[in-house]
Design brief:
Length: about 650
């Protein structure tokens, strides 16, 4: 589009908007049209001029003093842009977060013209004061904005062509705007690129200063882009993510909820390619590959991968040996975790929903470990395991002599033990209805009256509950009072069962490799494990993997015959065609017939598959048994002593 045609189109658009309040689609950019509408809603007239509201000299000095940190951070970038502005007859403008001009540098001749429209230090350039313009509209839209000539709302401002980008601090808060403005008569198509480079430099300076004591990881999907303004930067302190610049947030889909909650291993998979002091290739849990290098030396040990989390879970002394490792591996679950931590810190009660074995208590322990109450106690109560006759005294405590058999010194009770920390009520749906009323009272008053005691005791704890049941008051068999439900379910997290995991094979490998010196899993074994539905979820899987490690400890080999019967039977059923006439697949052929108790047809097909494998191995019985994952005697017994002869 030529400049003359563009000018005519904008003139027509301004006339239509001024007279009718509408502009045909496509005549002007959507951000500009939105700004025009905002200006019209404030009662502005396109043919008028902006209000002249400059600060006094004293007010300007005070404003600059309040924004001294921003001005210092921008000094180098302003010097760079000033040279460009002098060369092109332009002005570089720095404003605060409200659009008040702090600095103006550049061509003296154009500065005189710009002063006529109040583009000078001490003047407001937000939309409420100056109508549609790059600075004010960029603040509203929170994105880079260019406004050329007639796109400005007020007619006098049409002498300008401007490109502006908001400046964000390391916490993502807008602290100012950087703008390059010139004469609308000239072509300034380079302006946005220059401003973008300068803002990247400013934000990097602020980021590195803020996280001076942290390890800084630079990353980008392309190795060639490392060291450029396009790269993202993460700040890590003791492996915990404490900062992410805007590029890193976009690249890794991070938000404020991740800061202080996600660890390095929550974002990246175990292992990397390359040298730590050079460029490495990392894979995120979302499946993306990025190239990375350390901007600042690593001052702490980073041990990436799900194995770290699994090990941490095993090392918790309060956890029974048969509990599954932490199932929180995918980014969606981590996002739920991060959001739940922030809500828990804000006093919101969390309800965890999930089938048995999905790791509800482990999720709750992660909440505790990453919350502000991490130094306080974590008190877990299984409401289904406590006898109904004892649950009241165990929860609320009792005074000496409160009942027959009471301890001489009384008992504080689990609710008081949770003071300063987190109370985790597992299987809350199994709590007797009578006690639900008492619990509701505690949650409302934050006071506990022990059995046999007349004086309430204040308590302070965060509440996390869990259940495998539908507790909704609308459910026909609702197990929890409606008033209590709305107290404990202020935010709900659903933990998905293992069968819904996008990549069960990756989970199996991660948990298997969490143990040092674990033998290699055969692909057929992996197939069988990954193909099983795991009704007991992560707890069941962890138990099976532990059993396999023990069985394989002497030989160092995991065989199909070591798998539980239900896993083998599931594999055999999935391998058989519905009409029972097709040849069994190779995965079914690996089943140990001494374990499978299927139909006679299955036995016959299994034997046929074994004979086929033996023939493929040239009659070598030991090799065939090894490849099938069964013992040689099992193979010999199943297909007969003459089967080892070639051709049989």
């Amino acid at each position: 589009m030529t400049s003359e045609f563009r000018h005519q189109a904008l003139t027509q658009a301004r006339r239509l908007f001024s007279e009718q309040g509408v502009v045909p689609e496509g005549m002007i950019a959507e951000p500009i049209l939105r700004s025009w509408r905002r200006c019209a809603e404030q009662g502005f007239d396109m043919r008028g001029a902006r209000r002249q509201e400059p600060l006094t000299r004293a007010e300007l000095m005070a404003l600059r003093e309040r924004n001294e940190h921003l001005r210092q951070a921008c000094r180098s970038a302003l010097t760079m842009l000033r040279r460009e502005a002098d060369r092109t007859g332009s002005l570089v403008i720095l404003t605060d977060a409200s659009g008040m001009v702090l600095e103006r540098h550049g061509a003296a001749e154009f500065a005189s013209r710009a002063s006529r429209v109040a583009l000078m230090p001490g003047s407001p350039w937000n939309e409420s004061a100056a109508g549609t313009n790059a600075i004010g509209t960029a603040l509203v839209e929170q994105r880079p904005i260019a406004v050329h000539g007639d796109e400005h709302f007020f007619a006098p401002n049409r002498i300008l062509t401007c490109a502006a980008i908001p400046i964000a601090d390391p916490q993502g808060r807008t602290v100012g705007v950087l703008d390059l403005s010139g004469d609308a008569v000239h072509d300034h198509r380079h302006a946005m690129g220059l401003v973008s480079l300068a803002v990247a430099q400013i934000e990097r300076s602020m980021f590195t200063e803020t996280f001076a004591g942290c390890a800084l990881l630079r990353l980008h999907p392309g190795a060639a882009w490392l060291g450029t303004p396009e790269e993202g930067v993460l700040a890590l302190r003791d492996s915990v993510l404490v900062g992410a610049d805007r590029n890193a947030r976009t690249l890794l889909s991070l938000d404020d909820a991740a800061l202080g909650v996600f660890r390095y291993e929550d974002i990246f998979e175990a292992g990397h390619f390359g040298e730590r002091n050079g460029v490495v290739r990392l894979r995120t849990h979302g499946g993306a590959t990025v190239y990375a290098t350390w901007l600042r030396p690593v001052v702490q040990t980073l041990n990436p991968g799900p194995a770290t989390v699994a090990r941490e879970m095993r090392e918790m002394p309060v956890m029974p040996a048969n509990v599954a490792p932490d199932p929180v591996y995918d980014l969606a679950a981590l996002t739920d975790l991060a959001r739940a931590v922030h809500l828990l810190d804000g006093g919101v009660a969390i309800l965890l929903l999930g089938e048995t074995g999905t790791g509800k208590e482990l999720f709750a322990r992660q909440l505790h470990a990453r919350s502000r109450r991490a130094d306080g106690p974590f008190i877990a109560v299984n409401c289904a395991a406590l006898p109904e006759s004892l649950i009241e005294s165990e929860l609320f405590g009792y005074e000496e002599g409160a009942f027959t058999g009471a301890r001489k010194q009384g008992s504080r009770g689990l609710l008081r033990q949770a003071h300063g920390g987190i109370l985790f009520l597992d299987e809350i749906g199994d709590m007797p209805l009578g006690l639900q009323a008492r619990l509701l009272r505690v949650l409302q008053t934050r006071e506990i009256t022990p059995l046999g005691g007349g004086r309430p005791v204040p308590v302070d704890f965060s509440l996390v509950c869990a259940t495998h049941r539908n507790l909704s008051p609308q459910a026909p068999d609702a197990a929890v009072r409606a008033d209590l439900y709305f107290r404990i379910a202020e935010y709900t997290v659903r933990l998905s069962p293992l069968r819904e995991h996008a990549d069960r094979r990756a989970v199996i490998r991660a948990l298997w490799q969490a143990e040092s010196h674990a033998p290699q899993l055969d692909s057929a074994v992996e197939d069988a494990l990954a193909g099983y539905d795991w009704p007991g979820n992560y707890r069941q899987l962890a138990a099976v993997l532990r059993t396999l490690r023990i069985l394989a400890s002497s030989s160092g080999v995991v065989r199909m015959s070591m798998l539980p019967a239900e896993v083998l039977a599931h594999g055999s059923r999935s391998a058989i065609q519905p009409d029972r006439t097709a040849v069994v697949s190779f995965s079914a052929a690996t089943l140990d017939p001494g374990i499978v108790r299927g139909e006679g047809g299955l036995r016959a097909m299994t034997a046929a598959a074994m004979r086929a494998k033996l023939a493929a191995c040239g009659g070598n019985m030991s090799r065939a048994a090894r490849e099938l994952g069964v013992h040689r005697s099992t193979l010999y017994r199943r297909i007969g002593s003459t089967a080892h002869k070639p051709g049989v």
